Amino acid sequence: MEKIVFNLLVHVIKVHAQREITNSWQGTISNSFNWVAKKKDTKYDFSDMLNELYDDAISFASGEIFNGISEDKLRVLLDKELVILNCKMILHLNSSLT
């Protein structure tokens, strides 16, 4: 599950930083949602995991956007709480649909 959440977090960071979404990023975000949706019996609070993975996701995403950007500059561009909130909304949306 951690890999799915990490990939989601990286792609939500990219969307927030570049203020756009590519088809590839949308696909990764959708796949994360679909994977969690299949685990309907899983009522998991992703807050701790998202916070623990955030710095690694920043590091990973920084090399993939704006032809490479420093981690410090990327952190300045982002609102960490909003990024994590958006991830949690995606991850928990399936519980409101079931």
- The low-pLDDT segments are none
What shape does the CA trace take?
Answer: globular
Number of domains: 1
Major sheet attributes: none
Q: Helix- and strand-based class?
A: mainly alpha
Number of helices: 5
Separation of termini?
20 Å
Rg from alpha-carbon coordinates? 13 Å
Task: Give the ordered list of helices and strands.
Answer: HHHHH
Helix content: over 70%
Strands, count? 0
Overall average residue pLDDT: 84
Proportion of residues in extended strands: under 5%
Brief sketch in words of this structure:
With 98 residues, the protein is mainly alpha-helical. It has five helices and no strands.
Could you explain how this protein is built, in words?
With 98 residues, this protein is mostly helical. The chain has one domain. It has five helices and no strands. The radius of gyration is 13 Å and the shape is globular.
Defining key terms:
mainly alpha, 98 residues, globular, 0% strand
Write the layout of secondary structure elements.
Elements: H1 2-18, H2 23-38, H3 47-62, H4 71-77, H5 80-97
Helix pairs in contact: 1-2, 1-3, 1-5, 2-5, 3-5
